[in-house]
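Dear colleague,

Thank you for sharing your sequence with our group. We've completed the structure prediction you requested, and as agreed, I am returning the results in plain text so they can be pasted directly into your records. Please verify that the sequence below matches your submission; if there's any discrepancy, let me know and we will rerun it promptly.
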Amino acid sequence: MYKIAVIPGDGIGKEVMEATLNVLNALDIDFEFKFGEAGDECKEKNDLALPQETIDLVKKTDACLFGAAGETAADVIVRLRQEMDLFANLRPVKSYPGTNSIFNDLDFMIVRENTEGMYIGEEEYIKDESGNINGAAAKRIITRDASERICDYAFKYAKENNRKKVTGVHKANVLKKTDGLFKEVFYEVAKNYKDYNIDSEDFYVDATAMYLLTRPKSFDVIVTTNLFGDILSDEGAGLVGGLGLIPSANIGDERALFEPVHGSAPDIAGKGLANPTAMILSAIMMLEYLGEKEKANILDKAVLDVLSEGKIVTGDLNGKSSTMEMSEAIKEKLNFK
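Please find the predicted structure tokens below.
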């Protein structure tokens, strides 16, 4: 039996989570879902966006499924990543049929360092002699240990998934010390994988942003720092039809959390309009993490079939179906396996 922490969160997080659990319950896997609270509504209720009880719950389970958070997203998801030391954020960029994908055959992975960089939250105001705020400063931390760990994860992912190239992304021409260190460590780690025929290259982040638009098929695995990975992965989402189709995984040495990258979308919350695909694809990544690769492939094929047919899909996919109707359509496809 797998114990899974379930945190629906806010807005459409609740709806896409319900749709995903509906599909997971149809698989021949013994799950025990344990529910926790977090997000805007939780803060209004408990004066805490992320209660200690929820943190403890996640620590006692095999994996966590997270829906979405609103204004408190940084207080929830960033803290969970730090509390669990979920150092690797995986953002697949993959084209699916029947979507608004700019390119039809993209399939690469962005591996983002998750614990440091600009997102450590160390900011302060700069005041003048009279105490007036004249500016603000943020600290950016890049360490050798974290850089080595994330680069090694990227190369290991490439080796285990038959990927042929890893691209390191940085801005070492300007950020000479922080990104200079990241680039240096990237090539040190690359040497450890020279016997596996995995090519290595590096680009500046601004060049990478352009290449994602002009030649995205040249990428296989991208590894980069926290802020750059956040931005590039959203650009990647734009290439393949939007955030409603992009799952993600947060992986540590002992724990993992899986979430769609879209937000809580309060403008459509409660209307049954949300696309559940990203949440279901995140659950597929969870199945792979748990070693249930066969079931992951079955569910992935079911999603692919529904998207390919384009008959029972949500409005953002040019359909007229509700969140749960699309979930049921995917569930029905499982019966034909």
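Summary note from our side: The chain has a mean pLDDT of 94.

Kind regards,
the structure core
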